[in-house]
Design a protein that fits this description.
This protein starts with 9 loop residues before the first helix and ends with a helix. About 5% of the residues have low confidence. It has three domains: about 50 residues, PGBD-like superfamily/PGBD (Muramoyl-pentapeptide Carboxypeptidase, domain 1, Orthogonal Bundle); about 100 residues, no CATH class; about 50 residues, no CATH class. It is about 50% helix and about 0% strand. By secondary structure, the protein is mainly α. Strand 1 and strand 2 form a beta hairpin.
């Protein structure tokens, strides 16, 4: 859960209703101010960002035996073994991933979760960080910022994404701002209008009109869609050795960045699930 200025969707509407605001589903300055006041009144950090701690305090779950103590068993995968090792918000999304995306063995799930966890900084980041300095733009996206052009884009994520992702992945030109609208979201970032369209058709919910759904509702499912679409399960099935983790990492990351951490968490998850 991560809602802040710029977020849109049903979760924002629910939040606004709770705060006594007009529920238009758009997180603007008025919602930001109301959230900060509510956080302050309830002993939370008053930053205007609705993460898991704010959401759970605002909408506490009813304690029931099934929700507190029991995690569903899906096929031969006993998900209760993962409790306490990954966030409950992630754990609750796994049954859908198992059933819809062929992530249906302990080996596949261990590979998948280790990659998602690393790519998202421990299942925390669900939206691409594009807040680059001028030097960072030159280093990361140099071909899009010749000369001194990076100076006029630095620290402006919307402008950066609109330019870098323009006319790619079925996005429109820079002026369309579709590069920003369809920037990376989810634990393994779904990027580009074309990929959002494919995911929309599969999942059955309109992530073109409301792309923030990928970050708020489908961060794990969108990552599983990437694995399934790119046939990564076939690589996962090769084994539990470091070479297989490396091969999966190269397909996910394009290199081997963070390989040691990915291997560490793969071993942890595979041990728990085996």
């Amino acid at each position: 859960m991560l809602l802040k200025i710029g977020s849109k969707g049903e979760e924002v509407k629910k939040l606004q209703q709770k705060l006594g605001l007009t529920a238009d589903g758009s997180f603007g300055p008025g919602t930001d101010a109301a959230v900060k006041k509510w956080q302050s009144d309830n002993g939370l950090k008053s930053d205007g960002v609705v993460g898991d701690s704010t959401w759970e305090k605002m909408f506490p779950k009813e304690p029931t035996t099934s929700s507190v103590n029991v995690v569903p068993v899906v096929g031969q995968i006993k998900l209760e073994k993962l409790k306490g090792h990954i966030p409950d918000t992630v754990l609750s999304q796994i049954p859908e991933v198992i059933n819809k995306f062929n992530c249906n063995t302990p080996l596949r799930l261990a590979h998948f979760l280790s990659q998602c966890g690393h790519e998202s900084g421990g299942f925390k980041a669900v939206t691409e960080n594009l807040n680059y300095s001028a030097d960072g733009l030159k280093k990361t996206f140099g071909k899009y910022f010749p000369g001194d052009l990076s100076n006029s884009y630095a620290k402006n994520p919307e402008k950066i994404a609109s330019r870098v992702y323009a006319n790619r992945m079925e996005n429109g030109d820079e002026n369309s701002k579709e590069g920003w609208k369809f920037r990376g979201r989810g634990y393994i970032q779904l990027t580009g209008k074309g990929n959002y369209s494919k995911f929309t058709k599969f999942i059955g919910e309109d992530c073109i009109s409301n792309p923030d759904l990928v970050a708020t509702k489908y961060p794990l499912a969108s990552a599983a869609f990437f694995f399934d679409s790119n046939k990564l399960w076939l690589i996962c099935d090769k084994g539990s050795d470091d070479a297989t983790v490396t091969a999966v990492t190269k397909r996910v990351n394009g290199g081997t960045l963070g390989l040691t951490d990915r291997i560490k968490h793969f071993r942890e998850f595979f041990h728990l699930l085996s």
